[in-house]
Amino acid sequence: MSGGALVLLVAFALMEDFSSTFQAAPWGKIILLGTVGVSVSTLLFAWGIKLSSAMAAALIATTGPIVATLITRLVYSEPLRKGIVLGVLLAVAGGICAVRGNGDRFDQLKGGELFVLMAMSLWVWYSYNCQRWLSDIPQIGIAALTVTAGALGFAAYVGFAELSGIDDIRFGTSTREWIVLAWLSVGPASTSIFLWHFGVSRIGVTIGAMYQNLVPIVVVLISINLGRHPTTMHLVAGVLIITGVLYTQIRNLPKNS
């Protein structure tokens, strides 16, 4: 996480007016967003996966569009977009098909699923309020500053956990493990967080959550290069998710007068 924060900060400094933004930034809100939205949600998601079956956690994750719709509507009184209900249902159904298409078995709920749901809720809260509270900061700045705050919060937790013994913190021991961690941090993690904020600023959290249900389909497409072919359920999932997203966005296109 710290590596990703550093990459985002460097990109922010090169692309935008870093000094003026840094001085005028609402640091209290940035620290809150980074600590709760980034570090706490990451920890909850990790605990959720650890304490639940992979199948159950994946199924809970497919309900992201529903969670986003409920939070933005009930907490922030944001009006529902045209076609959002049907679009969300299609996206969630597609996500479930994608998970089921992997052939995994669903055994039982183990309790960790609640942590996954909490992590998703905090991520929606974080994504929504980044655009609401930090509207004067460019998207690369939002990503850089909140992830940096999250990295500091995560480091504080690691230090506390090590000293108190409340959690078993393990780090990579081999050179290969450190290289993989470094790559994930400075590459996919930092890039995806910036792109997420950029996308949410234009299409909203709920539509963004609908697109996230395409992740299993992307994994399937990557696995084709490794000699594994998609199942019928994967194909159905892709059609359902894309249909849900397109239907909602087409319903909200401005009408020509």
Order of helices and strands: HHHHHHHHHHHH
Instruction: Count the beta strands.
Output: 0
Binned strand content:
under 5%
User: What radius of gyration results from the CA coordinates?
Assistant: 19 Å
How many strands, what sense, and barrel or not for the largest sheet? none
User: Please, what is the average pLDDT?
Assistant: 86
In terms of quaternary structure, what is this? single chain
Instruction: Please mark out the parts with pLDDT under 50 across 5 or more consecutive residues, or reply none.
Output: none
User: What is the count of helical runs?
Assistant: 12
The structural class is mainly alpha
Give the terminus-to-terminus CA distance: 48 Å
Outline: globular
Features:
globular, 12 helices, 257 residues, EmrE-like, single chain, mainly alpha
Description:
The chain has one domain (2-251). The N and C termini lie far apart (48 Å). It has helices at 2-15, 18-24, 27-50, 54-61, 64-75, 84-100, 112-133, 139-164, 175-203, 205-212, 215-224, 232-251. The chain is mainly alpha-helical. Helix content is 77%, strand content 0%. The radius of gyration is 19 Å and the shape is globular. This is EamA domain-containing protein. Keywords: Cell membrane, Membrane, Transmembrane, Transmembrane helix. One of its GO terms (cellular component) is plasma membrane. It holds the Pfam family EamA.
SSE topology sketch:
Layout: H1 2-15, H2 18-24, H3 27-50, H4 54-61, H5 64-75, H6 84-100, H7 112-133, H8 139-164, H9 175-203, H10 205-212, H11 215-224, H12 232-251
Helix pairs in contact: 1-8, 1-9, 3-7, 3-8, 4-6, 4-7, 5-6, 5-7, 5-10, 6-10, 6-12, 8-9, 9-10
Pfam families: EamA
Protein name: EamA domain-containing protein
Keywords: Cell membrane, Membrane, Transmembrane, Transmembrane helix
